[in-house]
Structure prediction request, 237 residues.
Amino acid sequence: MKPIKTLLFTVLAALSMGALAQEAAIRKNLAERLPNLPKIDEVSKTPMQGLYEVRVNQSEIFYTDEKGDFLIQGSLIDTQARIDLTEQRIEKLSAIAFKDLPVKDAFTIVRGNGKRKMAVFSDPNCGFCKRFERDLLKIDNVTVHLFLYPVLGADSVEKSRNVWCSKDKAKTYMDWMVRDVTPPAASCDPAAVARNVEFGKKARITGTPTIIFADGSRVPGAIDSARIEKLLTEAKP
Prediction:
């Protein structure tokens, strides 16, 4: 048995060394030929023979051959399972652990028993955010951690400050988002809003609304109440 185990170990070691050499070749060739390509975070095999995933900027995906002679940007589709493998991979890479959210810099809206949880990054001047909030009113038994995320200009920053500094943040926010009642001027230390923006940059939150569910899954953009309900039901911390 020992010779067989030794042979197996030798074969596995050779395969591992070969994989490392191939990855090194891909990294070297792409870096030399495409100097403007961001630093490569990871090179890994895909289910498609001869195709490799090249990951940059944490969650940006490209594809290449085993020599790095070609670079492809687009979606890899599993036609048998009818799954967008690229989208699936990006969702996994961009997930944020719910426990890592800085909820001290958010305010909370509770509906019903509040057992289900979600977080929303919202700009008060975002039209899609307003539409989303109107749909979210239809959802019961949920706790929403609302992160003010002013990325659309100076007026967004001002409105976010006025909401954050108001006596009743949730009411002031909902009055504006749902009933078009402008947040009255208010003053306090708005550092929490600035921290939200910094957190969002690091987490690559590039648009509003961005919704994060208890299982860490992230949905960019406004979704309707039916999909919110579905995702809340499916999310398991």
